[in-house]
Write a structure and sequence with these properties.
disordered N terminus, 15 helices, mainly alpha
Length: 390
């Protein structure tokens, strides 16, 4: 039996460890609050910025929906109508203006950050959750991913993270309806942008793995996976039914599947790799410290996973790979596609900042290393905000 760490130290040393941990938590939460306020301030200052190209498309489609016009009869797009529907919702609430759309983005960004917090809290300590959420808010504000514009990728993240959060709840409670609702969330993510299908596939496999691990029965794993797949299909089936009822299913299929398929296969792999190298270099160069932390977070995950439950390793690395796969269709690697990776980059970065240092200082009660996480987090966020305000 392994002896707990604190049982091997003197009471005074144990008190020092606890005091250091408490101070680190308070510092991380304070940094999160400050980061949140700065992020909201910047987004409020940019509410009136003119609509970007994709925003204009979604806003036009959303406006037509508010006027009762029919998608794929009065206007066409190779994208599924989920994001345009979200635009219609926000324009209906906040007004049919750039400000109304960007207020909607602010709400979505805040809800997504909340999901990052909740996921991190189920996996790690408070300081890791605070660091990860602060890093996420900064990364989604970055000019490297055109973060101030309401691209579909922001909406994908909201629904995908909601689905992940439900799977974490399913891991704790064997309630089949949770899997079903998680599937609906991932189906909604696909409605926002077809690229999200790679993340839904990973979630499908994760569902089977969790069920098999709990029951040791493949039949139960197959049943849970089927339930997840059924939930995923519902949003897509409802849209298809809408198009069939409106008599526009043929055009809908052409634009969102046939034309989209040809569009996604027009760039050769060799050219795509060149685009990826250029885009990723640009992306990483602007927030280099945070991406280095994310890479370090993977190493920390391997160490923690070997010592304890490997679930966090499987989950975060799997989601990182699945989100990168979602960036790849078409080999265009546009700036805003990388928004899909940011929640998992943030979680890994937050883990590196907090857990990495604690692994080093685990046997040094009251060590000055306890002050390193907030200082390191401040330095990384400071460099990121420098780029934002540059």
């Amino acid at each position: 039996m392994t002896t707990p760490l604190h049982d091997s130290v003197e009471p005074s040393e144990r008190a020092g460890v606890e005091a250091t941990g408490q101070a680190t938590r308070i510092a991380a939460l304070a940094i999160l609050v400050i980061t949140s306020l700065i992020t909201v301030y910047v987004r409020l200052r940019l509410l009136s910025v003119p609509l970007e190209r994709d925003e204009g498309e979604y806003a036009y489609l959303g406006q037509l929906m508010l006027q009762g016009w029919q998608p794929f009869r009065d206007a066409y797009s190779m994208k599924l109508p989920g994001t345009a529907m979200m635009y219609a919702l926000f324009m209906g609430i906040f007004g049919q203006t750039p400000q109304g759309i960007h207020i909607g983005l602010l709400v979505v960004n805040a809800l997504t950050a909340w999901c990052v917090w909740l996921i991190a809290r189920r996996l790690f300590e408070v300081q890791t959750a605070a660091a990860s959420t602060a890093i996420f808010l900064l990364l989604t504000l970055s000019k490297s991913v055109l973060g101030v514009f309401a691209h579909a990728t922001h909406f994908v993240n909201l629904f995908a993270l909601a689905g992940v959060l439900l799977l974490l709840k399913y891991r704790e409670k064997d309630q089949p309806h949770i899997v079903f609702v998680s599937g609906i969330c991932f189906g909604a993510a696909i409605l926002m942008k077809q690229h999200a299908v790679t993340m839904a596939i990973f979630a499908f496999c994760l569902t089977a793995w969790l069920s098999r691990k709990r029951t040791q029965r493949w039949a139960q794993a197959a049943s849970s996976s089927a339930l997840f797949a059924s939930g995923t299909a519902i949003p897509l089936a409802l849209i298809a039914l809408w198009m069939i009822t409106a008599g526009t299913f043929g055009k809908f299929w052409f634009w969102t599947f046939e034309y989209a398929r040809d569009y996604a296969t027009s760039v050769p792999l060799s050219e795509g790799l060149s685009i990826l190298q250029s885009q990723f270099t640009h992306l990483v160069s602007l927030e280099f410290p945070l991406w280095i932390l994310a890479a370090s977070g993977i190493a920390v995950l391997f160490i923690v996973g070997r010592r304890n439950d490997p679930f966090a390793l499987v989950l975060l690395v799997g989601l990182l790979v699945a989100s990168f796969a979602a960036v790849c269709p078409g080999f265009y690697f546009r700036d805003h596609y990388f928004v899909l990776m940011l929640p998992y980059v943030a979680l890994l970065s937050g883990l590196a900042v907090t857990k990495g240092i604690s692994l080093v200082s685990a046997n040094r009660a009251g060590s000055w290393l306890g002050a390193v996480p907030p200082v390191l987090l401040l330095a990384a966020l400071g460099s990121g905000f420098f780029v934002v305000f540059l």
